[in-house]
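Re: that chain you flagged

S.,

Sorry for the slow reply, it's been a week of failed gels. I finally had a moment to sit down with the sequence you sent. For the record, here it is as I used it:
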Amino acid sequence: MNLETSRYNALSAEERSVIESKGTERPFSGEYDDFYEEGVYLCRRCNAELYRSDAKFDAHCGWPAFEQEIPGTVTRLPDPDGVRTEIECANCGGHLGHVFIGERLTAADTRHCVNSISMKFARPTAGGQYYCDKGWEHFNVGQYEKAIGFYSIAIEHIKKGPWEGQCYHRRAWSYAKLKQHQQAIQDYDHAIGLDPEYDLAYSHRGQSHAALGEHQQAIQDYDQAISLDPDYELAYSHRGQSYAALGEHQRAIQDYDQAVLLDADNELPYVNRALAYYDLGQHQRAIQDFDQTIRINPYLSEAYNNRGIAYSDLGQHQRAIQDYDHAIKLNPNYSCAYYNRGMAYIDLRQLERAIQDCDQAIKLRRRPGRQVETGLCRSLLQGQLSKADVDED
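Prediction finished late last night. Pasting the structure tokens below so you have them in one place:
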């Protein structure tokens, strides 16, 4: 048995000749050439969704024609004939046909010429819920572009009601995952317009505003989410982050306190509160919150690194190095932890060890200013800087 193909659908000899051997079915003979029902076309080999029915058009070419695929589902590659562009299922590599551009047959000016035998057709359930569910499946595995494609289909076909607002919200969330926050905000607006008590949509819209640096607008959205659900712990945490970004650290700490009261087992409010205390110069208090964060999640390398920074600021460099060691053990590619440990070794006058860490930080990630900072390590080793120079820096 071929282990590579055994996980796919069984194919007939005729299907294999096209899908696996890159053959072509006879023109005007395919099941879907003259077929225009509403639904979605799947890869016959692996069941991945490829095309939606509203992208299909009659090109009078003898094979099913589509002006676009569902985003991320089709791969293009040069055909062995050196002229055409072949298209394959992005999931399994099954041969679909060829794509042609510049024929001016549709506004998209693109024709996917697909063998019927390479596909299967699936009809949606009523009201577009099928597409919404498929979008959620793709979202949950991080395939956000594919999710957006299905939510877009759902929004076109779904009936008025709660599912419509949910589709806009989920599409917005997908856009936000791709850092397309302006587009996300538009969809959150639609979701909230359909359901003014949609607390999750307010909170997520707040996160997109915050990502764009619009913290006052974000706070307004978090206020609304909390007014709809006073126990919405994440909304308090996110509102605290926006207050902190505006420099209102005491106000941020109040929100983090409330988030901790609502969920004492979530590390997020502890991390955020620790950072707020750090920014206020209350390093011991910050360390206490980092301690709690690590008790909840002992695998969070950033918590060890940040606690190390707080210890370093208190002059406890040996203790800081222990935390940097732990952060690097958890994440061997953590360039900041190498750099911070190097700085702690400088303060302890272990200059050779400092250079090793700074060299490793450079190898892992070159950031603006890092070469200057590592240059300081080298200058110290060469005796070109006095301790006063180091302390002033």
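What I noticed first: The chain is about 55% helix and 10% strand.

Talk soon,
D.
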